[in-house]
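Attaching the record inline, Q. Sequence:
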Amino acid sequence: MTPDVNVCEVGPRDGLQMAHGRMATDTKLRWIGQLAAAGLKEIEVGSFVSPRMIPQMADTGEVVRGALAIEGLTVCALACNLKGAIAAHEAGAHVLAIPISVSDTHSHANVNKGTDVQVEMVRSIVDWVRAQSRPMRIDAAAATAFGCSMEGLVSRERVVQVAAALAATGVDRVALADTVGYAHPALVRDTVRAVQDAIGARLTKLHLHDTLGLGLANALAGLEQGIHDFDSCLAGLGGCPFAPGASGNIVTEDLVFMLESMGHRTGIDLPALLAARALLRESLPDEPMRSGVAAAGIPQTFKPQAALQAA
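Structure, as predicted:
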């Protein structure tokens, strides 16, 4: 059965790219296998970026190929240019994620190119992928859509403009990303509405960070506007190495608990998800790991939707 809400786990990419230590390739694949066994159907397993800039992602090609052996898993990889997109396709990724910063300042810091130039780069990636015999879904994310730690306020008009330009390149899906975690629920609501007015159902996902403790509230605001796809990270790891002040993603465990408690089926086994934290702790013992559910334990009142529907 198709989940009511789709949760894409980004820990192996967004979480590990900011880690102080390095997770070995075989451990990454074991961890990804545990996440998939817990019911996560889509996992962003790595990024095809310069290993000099982000050495934690140097083994992404091997990780993608290993993850493809997991039955039923949609394997996603991130790339910031055509070279990376070609590498993702050649490795066999099912989905390519491309972040394009609405903030021109952040875009230059992240990829050394401005926003408008990057949008045209997305068009070249779409053209290349569509010319290949094997299809690959292309998701573009309008990053810093709710504010930038370098540029400050990002206008809603500019967010709409960039999201519409990304949709016009022919990508399959568009996401809005709160790269530095500055969003609040009213801002999420109003921005999602404005982008929906411009590109309709092409807007599918929110990528949220929990810098100011509002990540789950922002997810709820998006859910109320019809968004049913969210990125999240086990234990709340992650952040952007090129955005000062950006901290971890919303916590997968807590997001699943909230959604299932509210009656939205995710298809994710919460106890199995919590168990996947052990390997993360073992591999990266110095990384801070967050989760209200992990700290408090699953309440006796919790009733997952799969069990309720089976009954």
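The chain has a mean pLDDT of 94. The first strand starts at residue 6 and ends at 9.

More tomorrow.
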